[in-house]
Amino acid sequence: MPGYGDVAVGPQGQVIMLQKIANHLGSTIALILGFITFAGALGPTGDHAGLVSGPVIILGALAYRSARKRKLGEVRSSVLRQVVEVGAIVIIVAAVVLQNNIKERIETDPVPNLIIPLWAVVAYFIMSVRAELQQPRIAGAA
After folding, report:
1. Is 137 helix (H, G, I), strand (E, B) or coil?
2. What is the per-residue pLDDT for 72?
3. Is 4 left (phi over 0), alpha (psi -120 to 50) or beta?
4. Per-residue pLDDT tens over the stretch 24-51
5. Cβ distance 40 to 46 under 8 Å?
6. Which residues contact 142 (CB under 8 A, 6 or more apart)?
7. Where are the alpha helices (DSSP H) in 1-142?
8. Which residues contact 2 (CB under 8 A, 6 or more apart)?
9. How far apart are CA 104 and CA 17, in angstroms?
10. What angle do CA 42, 121, 55 make, to 5 degrees?
11. Cα–Cα distance between 20 and 73 in angstroms, integer?
12. Which residues, including other chains, have CB under 8 Å from residue 120's CB and lie 6 or more apart?
């Protein structure tokens, strides 16, 4: 199966490329929304909650996409890949938990301070578990 950088010629190549785009459509949309949210927060009249929620969406989408690629067999499941995924999730949790007055922020503005990070962590966790369950087990391996 050709990668994203491979040139696909003919109808068969186009079908493969469309399948790859369809397989990762949700995380691509999340990445775009994350960048738009972050860029919107940088303006003088921007919502400063986007300074946290934008990167949270981006990191969550990248971790989710990586776990999904492992599940679909597009990439090998390596320890380094899983460490980077978990590192992104740890950064998401830290970005929320280490804010000043987190309880007040969650009460007054729950979407960027609770719902978005929770969505990112839960989506990654579900996909990661599915990827682990789907990996072929080698007979005799511990």
Report:
1. coil
2. 85
3. alpha
4. 888 999 999 999 999 989 988 777 788 8
5. yes
6. none
7. 10-23, 25-42, 50-72, 79-97, 102-108, 110, 116-134
8. 8, 13, 16, 17
9. 46
10. 15
11. 12
12. 56, 57, 59, 60, 61, 63, 64, 89, 92
Burial 100-129 (b: 16+ CB within 10 A, else e): eeeeebbeeeeebbeebbebbbebbeebbe
Show the tokens assigned to 108: 């007054």
The whole-model pTM stands at 0.80
Task: Please name the amino acid found at residue 115.
Answer: I
Structural tokens at position 17: 């490329």
Look up residue 86 and give its amino acid: V
d(CA 46, CA 49): 9
Which are the contacts of 116, defined by CB distance < 8 A and separation ≥ 6?
A: 53, 56, 57, 60
Tell me which residue has tokens 């190549």: 13
Report residue 88 as tokens.
């992104």
